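ok so heres the complex, two chains, lmk if somethin looks off
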Amino acid sequence: MRRRIPRILLAACLPALLLSACAEVKPWQKGELAKPAMQFDSDPLAARLAQHIYFSKEGASGGYGVGGGGCGCN
Amino acid sequence: MRLQLTMAQSTRPPRVCANEPVDADNNLSQRGAVLAAALALPGVVAAENAPTEGLIAFKYLWYHDQQPGLSRITVNSPSVYTLLPVGESWSVEGTVVVDSISGATPRYHTAISGASDMNDTRAAGEFKLTRYFRRAAVGFGLAYSGEHDYKSTAASLDVRLASDDNNTTIALGTAFTADRIDSSDGTVTGETRQVNDFVVGLTQVLSPTDIAKFNLTYSHGRGYFSDPYKLVDVRPRLRNQTAVLTEWNHSFASESTLRSSYRYYSDSFGVKAHTLGFEFAQGVGSGWTLTPALRYYTQSAADFYFGPTYDPVLGPPFPPGYLTNPPVYSSADQRLSAFGAVTVGMRVDKRFGAWNVDFRYDYYQQRGDWRLGGGGSTGLDPFSAHYVQLGIAKSF
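and the predicted structre for the whole thing:
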């Protein structure tokens, strides 16, 4: 129990450190990033349905945000 | 506004990764066209600008799951999502979904005899209002989900802050959920559950072809967590859950994109899980996109899960020693056992101007011996599901 939190904090900080070491990308270099396929939430309904299915069949849930509310399906 | 100032001050001078080629695009007209295209699209490029286009999407899900010798649950689920820009600095989002659920589920482990029949309809809706500022957005959401035996109401607040160059976005969010449980067989009435959720997120443009997202979520729940339809299912009235999610999207030349994700999960029930996901979107011309997907999931069992070895006197579903030394908490729910699971899916998109039509098929299976590193729960039948989604969306 006691070791769980530091491991999570380490996992939390590592990406932030890696990210801060990267280049500044100029607005005119963002054409590829604007493609629909590059968006994190390009199909909100599909993402919601997938999370709902996994939530009701697996022990783990969360990580994607807050506010969806609960249901009796687990 | 004070937060926005803080963000602006923290914007770093340009730096370059040692291993990253700097793209020198010298063609001014090409540069202008790409910029115009980039600015015209909502989402990451103008991270916290109000959307300039509305969207309406409809999806139909058909889902079925089973185990050897038992056809379990079938779900038919239509849903609608809409995003409406309101003026220049507001947007409204709404989602409505109706699930029609029927079939049978085991009352303990994967026991077929005595499986409980169910027939239920769930209606759920979400509403979100977002106010956009120059480099920030504040969203307020409400959600409701109702079945005849389970009602859930939630409210959420989130703040997103973008750096001046829009390459970094920080998101903070919180939600409160209040649930009420009254089982249809009358064994559980007036039970409640309250959950506080928190999220801290970071989205970072890494290069002209890479963007990453990182989320840390924490959930603190109190109340009734047991399953009223399972036998000898008594779970703690407290559940704290932590999840760390990293997503990375990379754009290749030749119209292909790789979306990768990894999630680590840990909770106070003793479940620890790893989830790894890949989607490879490949444009194949004339508005068609094919996206094969692969997901692997592995979890440890909850501390109070017991396997299908029963008390020699009482027999199933009671764990050994149930009479002489009954456990405080116990569950024979397959979902709290140790297992691994694989999903294989394929999505096909076809775009016609402002319209997009999509079809997706997924096959899912979980097995004790697919757990990462071995040590999965034994004595349970494999569980499998397959589902089809058909969608149509229009931007306006």
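quick notes: The mean pLDDT of chain B is 89. thats all i got rn
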